[in-house]
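Complex 253.
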Amino acid sequence: MRKLIVAGNWKMNTGIEEGIQLSSEINSYLSKNNLPSNKRIIISPPYTHLYPISKVINPSLITLSAQNCASTENGAYTGEISAQMLKELGVKMVILGHSERRQYFNEDSDILLKKIKLALKYDLEIIFCVGESLKERENKTYFNIIERQIKDTLFNLNENEIKKIIIAYEPVWAIGTGKTATPNEAQEMHEFIRKLIKNKFGEQISEEISILYGGSCKPGNAKEIFEKKDVDGGLIGGASLKAQDFEKIIESI
Ligand code: PGA
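Predicted structure with 2-phosphoglycolic acid bound:
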C-alpha cells in the first residue's frame, strides 16, 4: 500500500528558535497521536535549521528534508550545499524541482537530473515537484508540460531509483496564491502522472509511488483534495508554518 504523506515546505521562513519550537510542537503532537504506519510526516526547514532540528525530532515520527541541494558533488561552488553534506547532517530527503527554484534560479531539467542523481548517490529520498504555469493551464498545454518535466528527469532513472521518489504536483498558479486546484483538477493530473509512471516503470511501481498535491493547501480544503483516489497527501507551504494548521492537515490524510 502506498504511503499517505503530509510534507511541510517552510521555504525561507522562521527564525532558528521559532523553527526549533515549531518542529518540537509537531513532534510532540505526533508522539501523542499514533499515526498508522502507512502515514508519513515530513518537514523541510531552511538549511541553517536542519542540524538543531535533527536533535529535537524523533526520526521515526518526522522525516527531515532539505529544500534543495547542489548539482555538483563538491569543490569551488561558493554558497552551495552538497547532497553529501546534507546526508552527514542526518537529513533523509530533499525537495527538488520546486517551481520557485525553476523560476527564480533557472533550474531546468538538465540541472535537476544532476541533482536527483547526486541525492540518490547519497541515499537521500526526493520530493520531486512538477507543475504548470497559469498561462500553460489557460492555453491547455498542461498535460504536455507535466509529461515533459517528468520524461526529461524521472524517466532517466532505473527501477530502484524511482522507488526513492515522491512526486508533488504543484500547479504554479496555486502556490501561495490562495487559489487551489479543484479536487477534480488535482485528481485528473495525478491520474495522468500515475499513468506515465506505469507506462515507463510498470503497474506495481506506479501503484506504490506517492503523488502529493501542493498549492494553497489548508486545513479547510485538504480533506476534499486528499480524498481523491490518486492524491496521496500534500506538500504544504504557508499552512505548514503554524503547528495547529499543519496538525489539522495531518488529520485530513
Ligand atoms: P503553499 O506552497 O502551500 O504556500 O501554496 C506550497 C509549496 O510551494 O510547496
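The chain has a mean pLDDT of 97.
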